[in-house]
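A common beginner's mistake is to predict each chain separately and then try to dock the pieces by hand. The better habit, illustrated here, is to supply every component at once so that their relative placement is modeled jointly.
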Amino acid sequence: MKNIYRNSFYNLNKAKRILEKNQILALPTETVYGLAGNAYSHKSVKRIYSLKKRPQKNPLIIHYYNLELLKKDAEYDKNFLRLYKKFSPGPLTYILKKKKKSKVSKFANAKLKTIAVRFPKNKIIRSLLKKLAFPLAIPSANISTGVSPTDPLDVVDEFKNKIKFILNGGKSLIGLESTVINLSSKPAILRPGSISRTQIEKVLGKKVSNVTKSKFVISPGMHKRHYSPGIPIKLNSIKPDYKAAFIVFGKKYKMKKNMFNLSKKSNLKEAAKNLYKVLRKIKKLKYKKINVVKIPNKNIGIAINDRLKKASN
Ligand code: TXA
Ligand code: MG
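With all components supplied together, the output reads:
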């Protein structure tokens, strides 16, 4: 595919020049693929919203190489530093208070007083961030409310030739979006991910609440329908409905044509890595309905169930 570029010194420099011209490209992170633009540029940020057809009031995550640039953009405390030391770079996003002097475009954080920040671990995006004098605003590289991409072809699937430059990092290591924690007031998980609440509580030495189920929308992206393949999904099924695709987990299933196994080894990490690919495949095969078996609600299974729940709305 002509718009997919392999990771090389030459291509990273090309990516750098694209971003410096305030244009948009797609790139890998350890969670999912993202659409990246200069977070300090109104033009870049607005372009991301229009490409994704994303509502203006749903803010983006700003991706940094390390603490150096962040200091100018956000305020942080001891809780942040403890978590940063343990989990960053990695799949954890922090909601912090935005500094008045911050250069991050107000459109990137939906004119809120807070800002979401992350330090990705994938080595391609890290080499790129290291070359840049600005952080990157990066949402997942899918049309708003859809399924996140976990390889370069998924990005092509979403945007066709509208994205001219996609850096190839192979299949996403984790396959589900980062954990989001609010640190701008009492610590609370806004979106579960591969880093669990229990792991975070251990580092902070205290209980952290979970507001993903809250009636009050705290994270603007917590609106109900999300991560959706655009087909009705029924959860906790024992067997598939007539002509439905059946998503299963574990070894007790005899494979049939309509059956898609997230992990024959009953491995939740493997299931997380496969989930979005399977949803995309089922949509391509034109199934009109999806049934999913019960997935164990522990570790990254909590994040899998969160995405399935939202996809089923
Ligand atoms: O793993 C990830 O986080 C991926 C990769 C590409 O880094 N990115 C990602 O971005 O999932 P996106 O835009 O698809 O999701 C960002 C989430 C949304 O739920 C959004 O509402 C929330 O972060 N968010 C961003 N800024 C926020 C803020 N100031 N306060 C509360 N929630 C915020
Ligand atoms: Mg997204």
